Amino acid sequence: MAEIPAALKAVDRLEITILVDNSIDVFLPSTAEIRRAQIPTDLPWGERKALISEHGYSALVSVHMDEHSASLLFDAGVSTNALTHNMDVLEIRPQELHSIVLSHGHVDHTQGLLGMIKRLGKMRMPILLHPDAFLNRKVILPDKHELHSPAPNRRLLEQENVEFIEERGCSYLLEGMVLVTGQIHRTTEFEKGFPIHYSEINGTWQSDPLIHDDQALVVNVRDKGLVVMTGCGHAGAINSIRYAQKLTGVEKVYALLGGLHLTGAVFEPIIAPTLKELKAIAPRLVMPGHCTGWKATHAFAREFPEEFVQPSVGTRVFIESGSQTAERLN
Q: Is the pLDDT reported for residue 263 higher than 70?
């Protein structure tokens, strides 16, 4: 039986604030859609609190339709306190969040949960994730060195009043204005996963190249099209976009943001086919961050000279429908 496209509501406006990423550049210029960090303080540079970057990812996603607005957190970064520190600097209040979505279970996207949940206090916060996100993971490098990624501490987080929502399939959040893809179908010939990745399953380490818990977040901006966000994009950038198109029935893609995991010798061979397929999709904005890698990021900048957006912590992506733009200008 064919899948029925999901009833994802089109929003009037989408705002995405990058709270954790691998880099910061305070001199990047702003545009109407890309607004660089403005620290709300009159203190001179050097005395004010500064944003910090780390090898991790987190973003605040806010959607607006008619008079209704709602926000969620997408991932939480690699350290306990970087996320909450940057939220403090930007004067973002976590109490305004509806929920937290984890793109997958790797520690560079989950460790900040501990700091966030403590900051929320007694407020009960639902966290949406794929069941495999609770697996311990590791990468075995060619020199046999192992990099371990412990699973989110479920027991500790549940003690802090967290409600885990485990879902393999797609989910609707914020009254149907946000879609979380769930487990992404792999359809391209070149996006084959992470061959040196392993998971601890039933007490034994097993090869786990596909990282099935990898999921994307999707918003449909009226008159513009889909905005697809990935945490690491282990399912592949093109697989993620195609699955978002299949789930929603919307072909037009306006933006691709997030980590795309095209770094290192394992993934550099698929940079070219990824770019080729993405050029056919023709998004208006491309903002590859976190684990995309130096070579891939520069390739995106070269192949998408008008669409490319350099990532930087504190950046706010502001996408609104054509009618909203006209109304604001009038």
A: yes
Mean pLDDT, the chain, rounded, equals 93
Strand partners, 53: none
Q: What percent of the chain has pLDDT above 90?
A: 83
**What would you measure as the largest C-alpha separation in the chain, in angstroms?**
63
Task: Pick one of 1.10.760.10, 3.40.50.2020, 3.60.15.10, 3.40.50.1220 as the CATH number of 10-329.
Answer: 3.60.15.10
What's the DSSP call for residue 197?
E
C-alpha dihedral, 149 to 154 to 155 to 160, nearest 10°: 120
Are 152 and 110 within 8 A, CB to CB? yes
Q: What is the 3-state secondary structure (H, E, C) of 242-308?
A: HHHHHHHCCCCEEEEEEECCCCCCCCHHHHHHHHHHHHHHCCCEEEEEHHHCHHHHHHHHHHCCCCE
- In 279-310, which positions are buried (b, 16+ CB within 10 angstroms) versus exposed (e)? eebebbbbbbbbbbbeebbebbeebbeebbbb
CA distance 125 to 128: 10
Query: Among residues of the chain, what percentage have pLDDT more than 70?
Result: 96
The kind and range of the H/E element at 65 are strand 58-65
Greater model confidence, 156 or 51: 51
Burial class (CB in 10 A: 0-12, 13-18, 19+), 195: exposed
Q: What is the DSSP letter of 222?
A: T
Neighbours of 245 (CB within 10 A): 19
Residues 130 and 182 sit within 8 Å (Cβ to Cβ): yes
Instruction: Report pLDDT digits (tens) over 182-221.
Output: 999 999 999 999 999 999 999 999 999 999 999 999 999 9
